[in-house]
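Tokens as discussed.
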């Protein structure tokens, strides 16, 4: 069973991390298909174009979601650190993750791994300490 909701701001962290994983997945598919080799059929060309378009779209969506990520991360960290439901208090070092995510507007190659890996790691640590959220009943 889940625990009472400490903060629902983790949804923004999870959604942005999921888009980061999709970005990597689409990029790997595009790289495996070999963009430097000519397509031998119309179907192969369509797959190459769609994988490139999906990679670009995921990158644009991730850039747009960066602001949501930074706000969600900061607020979730604040609520979890101030709650009386658990003795767990996340380290202030976690706040370097949204700070690094802000560089997504300047250097996305460096920021995308920080968004994806940092968000997943924070959520994993949060679930270990606070517990998993209860989805069966909305409060």
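Sequence:
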């Amino acid at each position: 069973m889940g625990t009472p909701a400490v903060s629902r701001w983790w949804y923004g962290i999870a959604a942005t991390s999921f888009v980061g994983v999709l970005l990597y997945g689409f990029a790997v598919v595009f790289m495996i298909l070999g963009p430097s080799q000519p397509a031998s059929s119309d179907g192969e060309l369509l797959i190459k174009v769609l994988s490139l378009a999906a990679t670009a779209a995921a990158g644009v969506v991730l850039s747009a979601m960066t602001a949501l990520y930074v706000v969600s991360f900061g607020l979730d960290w604040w609520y979890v650190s101030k709650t009386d439901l658990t003795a767990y208090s996340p380290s202030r070092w976690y706040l370097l993750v949204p700070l690094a995510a802000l560089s997504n507007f300047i250097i996305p190659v460096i920021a995308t791994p920080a968004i994806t890996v940092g968000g997943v790691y924070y959520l994993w640590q949060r679930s270990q300490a606070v517990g998993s959220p209860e989805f069966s009943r909305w409060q």
